[in-house]
Amino acid sequence: MLNTVDHSLDIKLLCSGDETAFSRVYEQFSGQVYRLAFRFLKSKELSEEIVQETFIKLWVNRSKLEVEGNLWLYLYVLAKRLCLNELRKVSHSEELFAKLLIDTKDASNQTEEEIVAADLEKFTTSLLNKLPSQQQIVFKLSRVDGLTHQQIANQLQISSNTVKNHMTAALKTIKSNLKQSDLTYVIALAFLLEK
């Protein structure tokens, strides 16, 4: 978690009011500060505000920085305090508390959706990898690239009937594999097969 890179030069330049050093520090650490804030607040908007407040405080208090100090640790403590202050405000406001609950649920749903999407992509790839190479190519050109049978035939320099036969065989193999799979994947992959 702690960033052990030596930032003494940047800190020295920051202390002297160097805006280029400040921009460099912002570029390097703003993403980490955002992720920290988002873990607490589950709100894109509030997390962006915490990033801004953290770096404003860094700039305002730059003369108090220790040249040999750990810059990330300093930013971490600042951001964490700001997050906790924000959570205190939320706990005293029904409206903000309700919004935090919604944001938390949305963030959780988004994470679940990302996991399902990643699993689905792996599942789809494994299904396609089971097909013979020519069927894989034809299937991808049809379902992923959206080409017609004639366009695929022209591109691969094969007959339209051969393309149709490859598609029929590929769909048959995929559908038989889907019958043995989890229903969630069957529903999610249906759009690929029904085009």
TrEMBL record:
Keywords: Sigma factor, Transcription, Transcription regulation. It holds the Pfam family Sigma70_r2. Residues 126-173 form the RNA polymerase sigma factor 70 region 4 type domain. Residues 26-89 form the RNA polymerase sigma-70 region domain. Gene3D superfamilies: 1.10.1740.10, Winged helix-like DNA-binding domain superfamily/Winged helix DNA-binding domain. Transmembrane segments: none annotated. The keyword rRNA-binding does not apply. NCBIfam families: Sig70_bacteroi1 (TIGR02985), sigma70-ECF (TIGR02937). Belongs to the sigma-70 factor family. ECF subfamily. This is RNA polymerase sigma factor. It comes from Pedobacter helvus.
